């Protein structure tokens, strides 16, 4: 049970939603419920917008059915690789030891989803880049809502804000950090992702090429995550390097450069096409005058 204070609002949170009476009791955590809700809304968005992206709904669902469990396993594996803790048993990997399967890394899930999605798109003959363009908006939905699972677990918070109002604290945070308000990093990312849903949804209606929304997702999420990760106190580390922060900046910069180059190429092709069309019209006019 956590006694939480966020922006002056006092709350009492129980990370366990309810307990299923199986054996000695099987706790169901709010963390999992929140993530499941985010996933359900992401699937709903995909179902409602598949045709607009030129995708067959049944084949899209086939891709999702395979990519989802792979993404979860990859999110867990990514977390365990970089958290610095030695895995005690296979039960610990799946959360059957009572940990609640709460150690998941978003980037591991995204990588796993895209890799397995790529393979399934090939198998089911689904247009890969169009599938990715639709999927990344679903990712933002899932990420934006899923971050509230961190709130129920009182994790993914940042350093002290130095303010008497801005920030959050709880008995768990005080035990781990001491007195003072810390940055609610989960909230920063949730708001950014949900705004991103609206932005990318609108831009997706004016796509210039397949894969454009995927690049915009990489830029949008990478930019925010790179900076917010620098505030966090529980970052996954590779030596002295914050893995997610470094990866975010690399993805953001790489996607930005790629997007600019593609836009430039499209503009050049459009200009060349217009020039060819005008040139052809001039020839036709000259031939018409000659015939007269």
Number of separate structural domains:
1
Q: How would you classify the helix and strand content by structural class?
A: mainly alpha
For the biggest β-sheet, the strand order reads 2-1-5
Terminal residue distance: 92 Å
Low-confidence residue ranges: none
DSSP helix count?
A: 9
Rg on CA atoms, Å: 24 Å
What proportion of the residues form beta strands (DSSP E)?
5-15%
> What is the share of helical residues?
55-70%
What is the ordering of alpha helices and beta strands? Answer: EEEEHHHHHEHHHEEH
Query: Biggest β-sheet: count, sense, barrel?
Result: 3 strands, antiparallel
Total strands = 7
The outline comes out as: globular
Average pLDDT, rounded to a whole number, is 88
How would you describe what is shown here?
This protein has 292 residues and is mostly helical. It has one domain. 65% of the residues lie in helices and 9% in strands. The protein contains nine helices and seven strands, in the order ββββαααααβαααββα. The chain has helices at 30-49, 57-82, 90-94, 106-124, 128-153, 171-177, 185-204, 212-228, 243-291; strands spanning 2-6, 9-13, 16-20, 26-29, 168-170, 237-238, 241-242. A three-stranded antiparallel beta sheet has the order 2-1-5. It has a two-stranded antiparallel sheet with strand order 3-4. A hairpin with a 2-residue loop joins β1 and β2 (9-13). α4 runs antiparallel to α5, α5 (128-153) packs antiparallel against α7 and α5 (128-153) runs parallel beside α8. The radius of gyration is 24 Å and the shape is globular. The N and C termini lie far apart (92 Å). The mean pLDDT is 88.
